[in-house]
């Protein structure tokens, strides 16, 4: 693959947020994304997913692009901006309640919540829609997934984060989706430090953006056989794919529980 580099200064506030003192801010958000914190939000996700199912059953047809967007935005807004008198902790409670040493200024909070809203609503609905499209185009794979889900759960209330970890076909569906159609096809590139550095044998000046677009890496035939085809079986074997690392491209996409909550239950 040919390598392309550009040089510029960060101008967007939320990208500045990721570059500047990232470890301190991660410590704050780690509490919000812990398994126990996300488990506490499970009833909300089940509630809005249930509303989506009710809507689907009540109509002969459903505009999924719109409905997925409504559902994921409702979920995201509910876990980030809770109505205070309910006494339920939301993500902001961890940010506002952080210790003085790890506190965020208002500029950081605005950048953080903006990023979380986009990642939790628009990006998630894109994943759900394109995954549905892949399955509709390949009915045999949809049927395998349907059979796995129906044989595992007898009622919607049984669909929990813990239970979903035991569905290999469901996991494979999303793994292959992220490979074929990553919702953020570009990367959030790190910047070469002042003074420059040598990367892959090339000397890059300071301030250069260096990144690998996911869509290019995951469709590269030397890395994936039949790279342009949606093939679940590649994830159901013992074969490993070191190149496939969605967490590398998104600083807050490294929690297995976050992926489960955002995609699998819906």
UniProtKB/TrEMBL annotation:
Keywords: Heme, Iron, Metal-binding, Monooxygenase, Oxidoreductase, Virulence. Its cofactor is heme. One of its GO terms (molecular function) is heme binding. The keyword 4Fe-4S does not apply. Pfam families: p450. InterPro entries: Cyt_P450, Cyt_P450_E_grp-I, Cyt_P450_sf, Cytochrome_P450_monoxygenase. It comes from the Eukaryota. This is Uncharacterized protein.
